[in-house]
């Protein structure tokens, strides 16, 4: 992976974490145990610190940055969907940020909350635990049910398993010209897509 020391500060990646070779880590970045960092993610710790706690995932094309002296943190089992942007904010334990959402400086997403896809969370926003946060600008739409939280937790476990598999099963290769006659399928999952309404 492209990994850059900046101003004497070197990124840290726990040996049990998986960071895709196209992700970029710069400076004060700490990736904890069992984390997953997807393709083309950008973690720019050249102003503030970036921390991914145990079991967190940051998916494809996500961007994390922050103002000087800030700490942008994804707490334990946090889940950040494709294309999201986090800037100087706190994502609570077991919380989820949906695809293409933006969470701004000093925003606090409480534990077990979900920020809906494409939401824009303004600087300084805060919510109670287990909130559904939606809109642009974002607001708390309602409280999440335990069933919805369990669905999120199951999805996060899938990414934790993916991190483990990628460490041993992902390898660079040349593409085939055509699919094989008995092309294998990927491992099945019990987690199915589900809207949060």
UniProtKB/TrEMBL annotation:
InterPro entries: Hexapep (IPR001451), PaaY (IPR011974), Transf_Hexapept/Carb_Anhydrase (IPR050484), Trimer_LpxA-like_sf (IPR011004). Pfam families: Hexapep. SUPFAM superfamilies: Trimeric LpxA-like enzymes. CDD domains: LbH_paaY_like. Residues 177-197 are annotated as: Disordered. It comes from the Bacteria. PANTHER family: DYNACTIN SUBUNIT P25, GAMMA CARBONIC ANHYDRASE-LIKE 1, MITOCHONDRIAL-RELATED. This is Phenylacetic acid degradation protein. It comes from Geopseudomonas guangdongensis.
């Amino acid at each position: 992976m492209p990994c850059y020391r900046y101003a004497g500060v070197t990124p840290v990646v726990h040996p049990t974490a998986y960071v895709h070779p196209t992700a970029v880590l710069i400076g004060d970045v700490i990736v904890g145990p069992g984390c997953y960092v997807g393709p083309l993610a950008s973690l720019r710790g050249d102003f503030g610190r970036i921390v991914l706690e145990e079991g967190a995932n940051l998916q494809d094309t996500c961007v994390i940055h922050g103002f000087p002296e800030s700490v942008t943190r994804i707490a334990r089992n946090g889940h950040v969907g494709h294309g999201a942007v986090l800037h100087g904010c706190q994502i609570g334990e077991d919380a989820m940020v949906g695809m293409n959402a933006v969470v701004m400086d000093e925003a606090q997403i409480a534990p077990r909350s979900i920020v809906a896809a494409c939401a824009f969370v303004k600087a300084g926003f805060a919510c109670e635990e287990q909130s559904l946060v939606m809109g642009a600008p974002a607001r708390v739409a309602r409280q999440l049910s335990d069933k919805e939280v369990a669905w999120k937790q199951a999805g996060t476990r899938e990414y934790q398993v993916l991190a483990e598999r990628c460490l041993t099963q992902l390898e660079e290769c040349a593409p085939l010209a055509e699919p094989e006659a008995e092309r294998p399928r990927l491992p099945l999952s019990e987690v199915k897509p589900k809207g949060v309404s």
